Amino acid sequence: MSSSTLVGVLGDGAIEPPASRPRVLSLQTIQKPVAEELSIFQEHFRNSMYSQVGLLDKIIRYVLRQKGKRIRPVLVLLSAAACGSINEKTYRAATLVELLHTATLIHDDVVDDAERRRGVFSINALWKNKVAVLLGDFLLSRGLLLAVEHNDLKLLGTLSHAVRRMSEGELLQIEKSRRLDLDEETYFRIISDKTASLIAACTASGTMSVTDDEALVERMRTMGEKLGMAFQIRDDLFDFGVDDVGKPLGIDLQEKKLTLPLIFGLRQTDASERKRILRIVQKKVKSRADVREVSRFVESTGGIRYAREVMNRYAGEARLLLQDLPPSDARQGLIDLVDYTVTRKK
């Protein structure tokens, strides 16, 4: 992405970039325009996972007890409300998104051998990998059936395309983490596929549930893509302990993932310093001192500042794409969600 993209002078009535009007936002505030519809979605989601198999029903009840952020179904509902009137197809779109997203998270925990998800035990930790993989497969099948039974083939195509991109992005990242040769262009491709593709599918599917206007659907898909890029860069900044978050986490470093702040920093330094930092990244296990050392390097070479600028640029582009929608609480909710994405603490 060119560093000259956006954010220029905005015309009268334009939505200003988030940096110019910092606000403290919560997900509860953002969800308010669709709070009632979100409760209806929860019922649809619960019903979509029903099974008469005792073990499956027990695990599903465990999954439903977890209190996730539900950002993706909220995006579907807000996009639909901002572009039309929420209907049964919107609830199916939100349910399909959450089924596929939940399935990918369960499969991710198996791949990563993760024992916890959102502070509680993962499915594979409690019921082992075989059960977790089969549960993920079940959720994927329920999503497919939900779409086919209602002839929602465009919705199915949109979400299937996102899942394909997510898989390709993960595999490309694995390939590059082994070689430690990730450049900025490839990094953007990876996060576009891994993260932004599903968020784009949320905004597109919510819009297509209420309108046949292809141009509007594409506009909202692009808005979601920009939002997803900003979302992932914010996540990447957490790893290095940005000023408003605290000490560095080092999770990406432990997995030998090169993210935007580090990629930029490595590009600014000489060959010997680059080799020194990469030797730390290549270690199988990094100490806290290692993580702090890489974080200091990233800060001193301008990597944090650069990543913030790129994140805010994507957020500004996302907000501009919302500018021509009719003013409404739902549109404001989307704008607030963009702001929340780049200011959130976790």
State the gist of this model.
The chain has 346 residues and is mainly alpha-helical. The protein contains 15 helices and 2 strands. Strand 1 (116-117) and strand 2 form a beta hairpin.
CATH H level: which superfamily? Answer: Farnesyl Diphosphate Synthase
CATH class: Mainly Alpha
Strand content: under 5%
Instruction: From the 3D structure, determine the CATH topology.
Output: Farnesyl Diphosphate Synthase
- Per DSSP E runs of 2 or more residues, the count of β-strands stands at 2
What is the residue-averaged pLDDT? 88
CATH architectural name: Orthogonal Bundle
Order of helices and strands: HHHHHEEHHHHHHHHHH
Outline type: globular
Q: Radius of gyration from the CA trace?
A: 20 Å
Largest sheet: 2 strands, antiparallel
N- to C-terminal separation?
Answer: 26 Å
- Give the domain tally: 1
| Low-pLDDT ranges | 1-22
**Number of helix segments?**
15
Spatial order of the strands forming the largest sheet: 1-2
Task: Classify the helix fraction into a percent range.
Answer: over 70%
Classification by helices and strands: mainly alpha
